[in-house]
Write a structure and sequence with these properties.
Oligomer: single chain
Helix content: 40-55%
Strand content: 5-15%
CATH superfamily: LmbE-like
Number of strands: 7
CATH class: Alpha Beta
Shape: elongated
CATH architecture: 3-Layer(aba) Sandwich
Distance between the termini: 57 Å
C-alpha cells in the first residue's frame, strides 16, 4: 500500500486544529449553566453509545459483590444420592449441571427426572402455527437433546427418567386437573405417549403425576433433591416445586429439598451471553432466600457449556439467555420462601 500524501495529513491536522479552536471559543462564551448542560449532553451521548458496555459491567460488578458474601454449599459425599427435578429439558443443565458434576466427582449417585418433554414451545419447531404433530416431534427431539446433555455430564441412560406430562400444563394439573384429565392444547394429547417415558398411558392428571413422582422418590430415596423454587416466574416451575414439596413432605423428607430459580425476573441473569468467569447472583424473585453457592472448576464450567449447547433446539432461540447460566458458580436455597415475608415479596410480577 502506498503512503498517504503529506498534504492529506496536513489537511487533517488543520481540520482538527480549527474544530478544537472553534469548540474552545464557543465554550468560553457559554455561562456556567450552558456549560453544565453541554457536559450532560456529551455524557448522555457517550452513555447511549456505550450503554450496553456500562450495563454489562455494572451487573458483572454487582454479581461479584453479592455472590462473594454468600455461604458455600455443603460438599457432596460418596453416600449421597442426588435427584434433580426439571420441568423441561434444559432446566437440568441451566440450574444444576455443576451440582451433577460435583456429585459425580464425589462418587455420589445422580438421577434426573423431567416432568415434561417440552412439547409446548411452538417457536422451537421453526414453523409458524405448528400442528400438534410438529410439537410431538419436538418433544422427541428435546428428549434426545437431554440424553446428549446428560452424556456430556457423565450420566448414563439408566439415570434419566422422562415422565412425559404436558408442557405449560403442570400448574393446571396441580390446581384444576388433579382428578380430571387435561388435554394439551399444543399436542392434543391427554395421556403420556412418548416412547421412553416412565409410565406410558398415564392420564394427564395431577394425581397420576404425583403418584409417579412419589414412586420414584420412594424407590430412589435421595439424600438431596434439587427442584425449582415456587418463586420462579414460570408456572411449570412453580408446579414442579409444589409437587416436590407435597411428595417430600408426605414422606417426611422435606429437609432434603434444595431450590433453584431459572426464570428470576428483571431479565435475570445479567449480563446476557457467555461470561464463564462471573459468578451467578441471586435472582430478583429470590430475594431474602438463604442462598448457598457452589463454586465450579474451569473444567466443570467447560462441561456445563457443552451440556447447554447440546440443547440445540433451544439454543437457536434462547442462546444469550441460556449461556448466561454458564458461570463459575451455581446457587441453591434450602428454603422455598423467606422465613419472614416482607410486603414487597408478595409482588411476584417483577
Amino acid at each position: 500500500m502506498e503512503d498517504r500524501p503529506r498534504w492529506l495529513w496536513l489537511a487533517v491536522l488543520l481540520f482538527v486544529f480549527i474544530a478544537v479552536s472553534e469548540a474552545l471559543r464557543i465554550w468560553w462564551r457559554l455561562d456556567l449553566l450552558e456549560r453544565s448542560l453541554a457536559v450532560l449532553l456529551a455524557l448522555a451521548v457517550w452513555a447511549f453509545i456505550n450503554g450496553r458496555w456500562i450495563f454489562a459491567h455494572y451487573h458483572a460488578l454487582r454479581a461479584s459483590l453479592v455472590s462473594s458474601r454468600l455461604p458455600e454449599q455443603a460438599a457432596y459425599m460418596e453416600t449421597d444420592r442426588l435427584l434433580v427435578l426439571a420441568p423441561h429439558p434444559d432446566d437440568e443443565v441451566l440450574a444444576a449441571a455443576g451440582q451433577i458434576l460435583q456429585a459425580r466427582a464425589a462418587g455420589a449417585e445422580v438421577r434426573v427426572v423431567w416432568l415434561t418433554a417440552g412439547d409446548g414451545f411452538d417457536l422451537a419447531t421453526g414453523r409458524p402455527a405448528p400442528k400438534p404433530e410438529a410439537l410431538r416431534e419436538l418433544a422427541l427431539k428435546r428428549m434426545e437433546e437431554s440424553r446428549a446433555a446428560a452424556a456430556a455430564l457423565g450420566l448414563e441412560e439408566a439415570a434419566l427418567t422422562f415422565l412425559g406430562y404436558p408442557d405449560q400444563g403442570l400448574l393446571r394439573l396441580f390446581l384444576t386437573h388433579y382428578y380430571l384429565p387435561y388435554v394439551s392444547p399444543h399436542t392434543e394429547l391427554e395421556r403420556v405417549s412418548y416412547p421412553g417415558s416412565y409410565r406410558p398411558g398415564a392420564e394427564y392428571t395431577g394425581r397420576d403425576l404425583e403418584s409417579d413422582l412419589e414412586q420414584i422418590v420412594r424407590d430412589y430415596a435421595p439424600t438431596r433433591v434439587l427442584a425449582p423454587s415456587p418463586r420462579d416466574a414460570h408456572p411449570d416451575h412453580q408446579a414442579t416445586a409444589y409437587f416436590a414439596m407435597r411428595v417430600l413432605g408426605k414422606l417426611g423428607w422435606e429437609e432434603r429439598l434444595r431450590y433453584y430459580i431459572v426464570h428470576g425476573g428483571y431479565e435475570y441473569p445479567l449480563p446476557k451471553g457467555l461470561h464463564p468467569r462471573l459468578p451467578l447472583y441471586p435472582a430478583p424473585r429470590g430475594r431474602r432466600l438463604p442462598w448457598r453457592r457452589l463454586e465450579l472448576s474451569d473444567d466443570q464450567v467447560e462441561r456445563k457449556l457443552a451440556a447447554v449447547r447440546a440443547h440445540a433446539s433451544q439454543m437457536r432461540l434462547l442462546r444469550e439467555f441460556m449461556l448466561a447460566f454458564v458461570r463459575r458458580s451455581e446457587l441453591s436455597s434450602p428454603l422455598p420462601i423467606p422465613l419472614r415475608v416482607a410486603p414487597e415479596d408478595l409482588e411476584l410480577d417483577g
